[in-house]
Amino acid sequence: MSVLELQRVVRRARGGAHEQVLLREATLALQAGELVAVWSPREGGRRALLRIAAGVERPDSGVVRFAGEPLRGRPGELLGRGIGFGPAAARGREARAVLEELTLAQLAHGVPRRTARRQALDALERTGAAGCGARELAELDGAQAARVSLAQALVLDPSLLVLEDPVKGVDLLARDTILALLRSLADGGLAVLFGTGEATALSGADRVLSLTDGVLRGTEPPAAAELAPVLPLRRRAGA
Fold this sequence. Notes:
Layout: E1 4-15, E2 18-30, E3 35-39, H1 43-53, E4 61-66, E5 69-70, E6 83-86, H2 98-107, H3 113-126, H4 142-154, E7 160-163, H5 172-187, E8 191-196, E9 207-212, E10 215-217, H6 224-227
Helix pairs in contact: 2-3, 3-4
């Protein structure tokens, strides 16, 4: 059984008399232990796809299933209960330390404070952001913010991780370490779906899907034939 399934998902963006189709009957299945990248030249459709996959937004039509069950109810209802969602940048509500942000997010799910603090520390350690716990989000550089955003998504131990753009704002030297972290999370059994508009973020994925003009294709992006010699798509060991 797939961890995540999208079947014929449609999403439209309306602005006055104009309507843009962001997703045209998008279909996708994601397995445990799989790392899948969604590449697109524009952010709108990609962002809609990922937010629908995480249950943050509802599609206009189509079906989304998590662990075999349709996503119903209020948008975002399963966040923290099986689905971890990472926006393009780490976010905080106020000028709080990172560790406190991660702790407070768990209290809203009924986790005891002592347990929440321990799990927050574990998530920061897991993502290589242990040194960021006492700092505020505004103080972090791009790579640190990316690691903290991952920790926020992982803190309640999800089985599905959906990330809007995990390397946005991360310089090229640090980017490979973030991508290697995503690979290790998938190798540990997580289903990981992430979006990007940059070809340099595709290396290491099990599959690369392209999204252009609302159409989701299970192929490499248009320039992939030229990029393949320098950006091989590696499969997991034993795959």
